[in-house]
């Protein structure tokens, strides 16, 4: 019966800790390995953990939407970079690597006559 009590306590801490495993483990007094084993061996426990994680994600997404509706530019940019990639809202890194940057620099300096 102790294990069932610990699992219930873990799930409450997991919910209160917004789905952060290390927090819930610490508050419950179990190791991450115990948590991992419970998820492997107990499908109902695993489903409950996934539900907490999904609910937390829903809450965070609703907060992001609130900021977008307030015209928060950072939130808008974040949303476009994550959800708008298929429309080209991605950051690209240009790779223009010279073998010898010093040589390029020296060639760009005019010769003294």
In short:
The protein is an all-alpha fold and 113 residues long. Helices cover 70% and strands 0% of the residues.
Span of the ends, CA to CA: 92 Å
Structural class: mainly alpha
Report strand %.
Answer: under 5%
- Name the shape in a single word: elongated
Helix content: 55-70%
Secondary-structure element order, N to C: HHHHHH
Please state the CA-atom Rg, rounded to the nearest Å.
25 Å
For the sheet with most strands, the description reads:
none
Integer average pLDDT: 90
The oligomeric status of these chains comes to: single chain
Can you count the helices? 6
What is the tally of beta strands? Answer: 0
Query: Which consecutive residue ranges, at least 5 long each, have pLDDT under 50?
Result: none
Overall description:
The chain has 113 residues and is an all-alpha fold. Helices cover 70% and strands 0% of the residues. The chain has helices at residues 2-16, 21-28, 32-41, 43-69, 73-83, 101-108. The longest helix is centred in the middle third of the chain and has 27 residues, at 43-69. The radius of gyration is 25 Å and the shape is elongated. The mean pLDDT is 90.
List the helices and strands and how they pair.
Elements: H1 2-16, H2 21-28, H3 32-41, H4 43-69, H5 73-83, H6 101-108
Helix pairs in contact: 1-2, 1-4, 3-4, 4-5
